[in-house]
Amino acid sequence: MAVNLLDASSLLAAFGALGIAVVLFAETGLLVGFFLPGDSLLFTAGLLCVPGATDGPRLQLYQVIPAAVLGALVGAQVGYLIGRQGGHALLRRSNSRSLHHGVERAEELLARYGYGKAIVLARFIPVVRTVLNPLCGVLDVPLRTFTLWQVVGGTVWAVGVTMAGYALGSSVPDIDRYLLPIIGLVVVVSVIPIVLELFRARKGRRGGGDE
Protein backbone atom coordinates (compact mmCIF):
# COMPACT_ATOMS: atom_id res chain seq x y z
CA MET A 1 0.00 0.00 0.00
CA ALA A 2 1.41 3.38 -1.05
CA VAL A 3 1.69 5.90 1.77
CA ASN A 4 1.68 9.65 1.19
CA LEU A 5 3.94 11.17 3.86
CA LEU A 6 2.33 14.56 3.37
CA ASP A 7 -1.22 13.23 3.84
CA ALA A 8 -2.29 12.83 7.47
CA SER A 9 -5.14 10.47 6.60
CA SER A 10 -2.83 8.23 4.56
CA LEU A 11 -0.29 8.06 7.38
CA LEU A 12 -2.91 7.24 9.98
CA ALA A 13 -4.58 4.62 7.81
CA ALA A 14 -1.24 2.89 7.25
CA PHE A 15 0.39 3.12 10.68
CA GLY A 16 -2.21 4.20 13.25
CA ALA A 17 -0.97 5.45 16.63
CA LEU A 18 2.55 4.14 16.01
CA GLY A 19 2.76 6.37 12.95
CA ILE A 20 1.88 9.40 15.06
CA ALA A 21 4.80 8.77 17.41
CA VAL A 22 7.26 8.22 14.53
CA VAL A 23 6.13 11.26 12.53
CA LEU A 24 6.20 13.61 15.51
CA PHE A 25 9.62 12.29 16.52
CA ALA A 26 10.96 12.99 13.02
CA GLU A 27 9.27 16.38 12.73
CA THR A 28 10.50 17.68 16.09
CA GLY A 29 13.84 15.90 16.36
CA LEU A 30 15.30 15.51 12.88
CA LEU A 31 15.82 18.46 10.55
CA VAL A 32 14.79 16.33 7.58
CA GLY A 33 11.30 16.03 9.11
CA PHE A 34 10.37 19.70 8.76
CA PHE A 35 7.94 18.93 5.91
CA LEU A 36 5.87 16.37 7.85
CA PRO A 37 2.25 17.29 8.72
CA GLY A 38 2.37 17.46 12.52
CA ASP A 39 -0.61 19.74 13.14
CA SER A 40 -2.94 18.15 10.61
CA LEU A 41 -1.84 14.67 11.75
CA LEU A 42 -2.82 15.37 15.36
CA PHE A 43 -6.08 17.07 14.40
CA THR A 44 -7.07 14.24 12.05
CA ALA A 45 -6.13 11.64 14.66
CA GLY A 46 -8.48 13.36 17.12
CA LEU A 47 -11.31 13.25 14.56
CA LEU A 48 -10.71 9.56 13.91
CA CYS A 49 -11.08 8.80 17.62
CA VAL A 50 -14.76 9.84 17.51
CA PRO A 51 -16.95 6.74 16.88
CA GLY A 52 -18.69 7.00 13.53
CA ALA A 53 -17.46 10.53 12.79
CA THR A 54 -15.63 9.57 9.58
CA ASP A 55 -15.24 6.68 7.18
CA GLY A 56 -11.50 6.56 7.87
CA PRO A 57 -9.62 4.19 10.18
CA ARG A 58 -10.82 4.08 13.80
CA LEU A 59 -8.33 5.19 16.43
CA GLN A 60 -8.48 5.25 20.22
CA LEU A 61 -7.65 8.29 22.37
CA TYR A 62 -5.92 6.13 24.98
CA GLN A 63 -3.45 5.10 22.25
CA VAL A 64 -3.23 8.36 20.31
CA ILE A 65 -2.51 10.72 23.22
CA PRO A 66 0.45 8.76 24.70
CA ALA A 67 1.89 8.15 21.22
CA ALA A 68 1.64 11.83 20.31
CA VAL A 69 3.16 13.05 23.56
CA LEU A 70 5.95 10.46 23.46
CA GLY A 71 6.92 11.28 19.87
CA ALA A 72 6.83 15.03 20.45
CA LEU A 73 8.86 14.98 23.67
CA VAL A 74 11.48 12.42 22.70
CA GLY A 75 11.94 14.05 19.29
CA ALA A 76 12.55 17.50 20.76
CA GLN A 77 15.02 16.15 23.30
CA VAL A 78 16.96 14.28 20.63
CA GLY A 79 17.02 17.39 18.44
CA TYR A 80 18.44 19.42 21.32
CA LEU A 81 21.13 16.83 22.05
CA ILE A 82 22.12 16.67 18.37
CA GLY A 83 22.55 20.44 18.32
CA ARG A 84 24.48 20.45 21.58
CA GLN A 85 26.85 17.65 20.55
CA GLY A 86 27.49 18.53 16.92
CA GLY A 87 26.17 22.01 16.28
CA HIS A 88 29.26 24.00 17.26
CA ALA A 89 31.55 21.99 14.99
CA LEU A 90 29.09 22.32 12.12
CA LEU A 91 28.93 26.09 12.51
CA ARG A 92 32.71 26.39 12.55
CA ARG A 93 33.04 24.41 9.33
CA SER A 94 30.07 25.87 7.48
CA ASN A 95 30.15 29.00 5.35
CA SER A 96 26.39 28.87 4.76
CA ARG A 97 24.90 32.33 5.26
CA SER A 98 21.42 30.88 5.75
CA LEU A 99 22.65 28.56 8.52
CA HIS A 100 24.37 31.35 10.42
CA HIS A 101 21.40 33.65 9.86
CA GLY A 102 19.12 30.95 11.28
CA VAL A 103 21.25 30.75 14.43
CA GLU A 104 21.10 34.53 14.78
CA ARG A 105 17.32 34.52 14.38
CA ALA A 106 16.97 31.78 17.00
CA GLU A 107 19.20 33.71 19.39
CA GLU A 108 17.07 36.82 18.82
CA LEU A 109 13.87 34.84 19.42
CA LEU A 110 15.14 33.38 22.68
CA ALA A 111 16.34 36.79 23.86
CA ARG A 112 13.08 38.53 22.96
CA TYR A 113 10.66 36.06 24.54
CA GLY A 114 12.82 34.26 27.07
CA TYR A 115 13.61 30.55 26.98
CA GLY A 116 10.30 29.29 28.32
CA LYS A 117 7.92 31.31 26.17
CA ALA A 118 9.98 30.85 22.99
CA ILE A 119 10.24 27.07 23.38
CA VAL A 120 6.53 26.69 24.14
CA LEU A 121 5.35 28.98 21.32
CA ALA A 122 7.65 27.28 18.81
CA ARG A 123 5.67 24.06 19.24
CA PHE A 124 2.72 25.62 17.46
CA ILE A 125 4.66 26.85 14.41
CA PRO A 126 5.66 24.38 11.67
CA VAL A 127 9.36 24.37 10.68
CA VAL A 128 10.19 26.52 13.73
CA ARG A 129 9.43 23.60 16.06
CA THR A 130 11.79 21.49 13.94
CA VAL A 131 14.79 23.83 13.86
CA LEU A 132 14.56 25.52 17.27
CA ASN A 133 15.29 22.35 19.24
CA PRO A 134 18.78 21.72 17.81
CA LEU A 135 19.47 25.46 17.80
CA CYS A 136 18.72 25.58 21.52
CA GLY A 137 21.47 23.00 21.89
CA VAL A 138 23.84 25.03 19.73
CA LEU A 139 23.10 28.18 21.74
CA ASP A 140 23.75 26.38 25.03
CA VAL A 141 20.29 26.75 26.51
CA PRO A 142 20.60 24.93 29.88
CA LEU A 143 19.51 21.30 29.60
CA ARG A 144 17.13 21.44 32.57
CA THR A 145 15.52 24.66 31.31
CA PHE A 146 15.05 23.29 27.81
CA THR A 147 13.69 19.97 29.07
CA LEU A 148 11.17 21.63 31.38
CA TRP A 149 9.73 23.94 28.75
CA GLN A 150 9.81 21.51 25.86
CA VAL A 151 7.85 19.03 28.00
CA VAL A 152 5.29 21.73 28.83
CA GLY A 153 5.03 22.95 25.24
CA GLY A 154 5.09 19.49 23.66
CA THR A 155 2.39 18.14 25.96
CA VAL A 156 0.09 21.14 25.51
CA TRP A 157 0.55 21.04 21.73
CA ALA A 158 0.12 17.30 21.26
CA VAL A 159 -2.85 16.95 23.60
CA GLY A 160 -4.45 20.27 22.67
CA VAL A 161 -4.49 19.81 18.89
CA THR A 162 -5.63 16.19 19.20
CA MET A 163 -8.47 17.12 21.56
CA ALA A 164 -9.48 20.00 19.28
CA GLY A 165 -10.02 17.46 16.50
CA TYR A 166 -11.87 15.14 18.87
CA ALA A 167 -14.11 17.95 20.13
CA LEU A 168 -15.00 19.07 16.61
CA GLY A 169 -15.72 15.53 15.50
CA SER A 170 -17.95 15.02 18.53
CA SER A 171 -19.96 18.21 18.01
CA VAL A 172 -20.38 18.48 14.22
CA PRO A 173 -22.61 15.87 12.52
CA ASP A 174 -21.32 14.36 9.27
CA ILE A 175 -17.89 15.87 9.81
CA ASP A 176 -16.59 13.55 7.09
CA ARG A 177 -17.94 15.76 4.31
CA TYR A 178 -16.00 18.76 5.67
CA LEU A 179 -12.81 16.89 6.49
CA LEU A 180 -10.59 18.13 3.65
CA PRO A 181 -11.54 21.82 4.03
CA ILE A 182 -11.05 21.62 7.79
CA ILE A 183 -7.60 20.04 7.47
CA GLY A 184 -6.73 22.65 4.85
CA LEU A 185 -7.77 25.38 7.28
CA VAL A 186 -5.62 23.85 10.02
CA VAL A 187 -2.62 23.91 7.69
CA VAL A 188 -3.26 27.52 6.65
CA VAL A 189 -3.64 28.70 10.25
CA SER A 190 -0.47 26.90 11.29
CA VAL A 191 1.66 28.61 8.62
CA ILE A 192 0.34 32.14 9.23
CA PRO A 193 3.02 32.86 11.89
CA ILE A 194 5.74 31.83 9.41
CA VAL A 195 4.36 34.13 6.72
CA LEU A 196 4.13 37.02 9.17
CA GLU A 197 7.68 36.45 10.38
CA LEU A 198 9.03 36.29 6.82
CA PHE A 199 7.19 39.50 5.99
CA ARG A 200 8.55 41.18 9.10
CA ALA A 201 12.10 40.04 8.35
CA ARG A 202 11.85 41.20 4.74
CA LYS A 203 10.50 44.57 5.84
CA GLY A 204 13.33 44.85 8.34
CA ARG A 205 15.95 44.15 5.66
CA ARG A 206 14.41 46.78 3.39
CA GLY A 207 14.37 49.27 6.24
CA GLY A 208 18.00 48.56 6.98
CA GLY A 209 18.90 48.98 3.32
CA ASP A 210 17.26 52.38 3.21
CA GLU A 211 19.46 53.74 6.00
Task: State the end-to-end CA separation.
Answer: 57 Å
> What fraction strand?
under 5%
Spans of 5+ residues with little confidence (pLDDT < 50)? Answer: none
Helicity, as a percent range: over 70%
For the secondary structure, the number of strands is 0
What order do the SSEs take from the amino end to the carboxyl end, as H and E? HHHHHHHH
Shape descriptor: elongated
Counting H and I runs of at least 4 residues, what is the number of helices?
A: 8
Rg (C-alpha, Å): 18 Å
Structural class: mainly alpha
The main pleated sheet reads as:
none
- Give the integer mean of the pLDDT values: 81
Main traits of this protein?
elongated; 77% helix; single chain; mainly alpha
